[in-house]
Amino acid sequence: MDSSTTILHSPRTVGPSERPPGHDVEEILRSYGELIQRSKLGWTEHLRLRRLLGTGGQGQVYLSERRGSDGFTLPVALKFFSPERFEGERDYVEAMRRMAQVGCHVSKIQHDNLLDVYNFIERNRVRILEMEWVDGYDLDILLTPAMLERARQQVSWERWEYINNVIVTRGPVRPRLKPGMAVALLHEVLAGLAALHREGIVHGDIKPSNIMVKRTGHPKIIDIGSAVELSNLPPQRTCTPQYAAPEILEREDVSPRSDLASVGYVLVEALSGRPLFAGIKDYAAMLEAKRTLPQRLEKVVPPEVRDSELLMTICRRLTSPDPMLRYGSAEEAITCEDGLAEFERTLVRGDLASEYENEMRVWLEELD
What we know:
The chain is of the alpha+beta class. The chain is built from 14 helices and twelve strands.
C-alpha cells in the first residue's frame, strides 16, 4: 500500500470502554446535579415478607426485607393493622390516623430503649406500620424453662453456677432474674418510658412480650400499637388486663403513672419467677389481686428480694393501687433516693454489682 492510499472506515458506535476518560462520570455528575436541585424525590419500595413474628389483638407482625440498590437489604418489621375489631371503615381510618400521629411522634424521639419507627403505609386501605426489627428475644420468651435448660446444656458447670448466681435461676413457675439483672433491665425500660412521657405519650401496654432484649444486652420497648397522646386521647383504648394498672381497668384512666404500674408488675414477675395474675378471668378478682399485691409481696418474692428493704420499697411503690403513691414519673423512679439507681449503687458499694449489660449479651450468645 503506497502512501497516497486513503482507507475509509464505516461509522460505528463507540463502546463504553472506548469512550474518553470521564465521559460516564460526567453523565452521572449531571444526574447528580439535577437530583439535588429537586424539591422532592420518589421511588418504588419493595418489601418482601419473610416470616410471621407474632399475632395479637391489633393484627399481625412480619419480618420483612427492604431492598435498595446494589444488593442493599435491610430487615424491618411490618405490623398489619386488622380492621376486624372496628364497626366500620370510618372508625378504622380514624384509629389509624391517630396511630400514624403517634408513630410519627415516636420516630422523632430516637431513644436507645425505644423501637425505631420508619414509616406508616397504606395498601388497599389496610394500614401497615414499618419499624425496626430487633434481633433478640422478648422477656416473655427469654424467661421460660426451655430457655434456661438450653443455657444449661450449652455451658460448663462453672459457667452454669455463675449464671445462676448473677443472671438467672430457676423459679417456682418459670426462671427468675437475679435482683441486679432485673433492676438493670427495668432501669433501661423506665428510661425509654421517661422519653415517651416527656413527649406526652403513654405506652399503654408494657408487658414482658413487649420488652425485647437485643443481642447487645440492651432492652427495647416495642409495639406502640396501644400508645396514646395525652393531648388527643382516642374514645377506645386497648390493653393487656394482666399488666394494666387498676385505674385503667376501673375507669380507663390512662397516665404516665399507669405505665409505672405495668413496669412494677413486670419487675415483680421477673424477680419472683411466677406470673402474678395468670388464670384470673374476672375483672373484680383481677382488681382485688392488684389492690392487695403490695401487702402480699413478701409471700410472692424470694428471700434475697425480701432481704432488701430498698428493693421491696421499689416494688411496692411501682405496684401501688393508688397512682398518687407511685413514683411521680419514670425519671423519678430511677433517680430518687429510693429509686432503681440507688439500689444499683448499693450493689456497687457492697461489691455485688456486675456489668449486667455485658452479662446479658454473653448469655444471649450462649443460647444460640
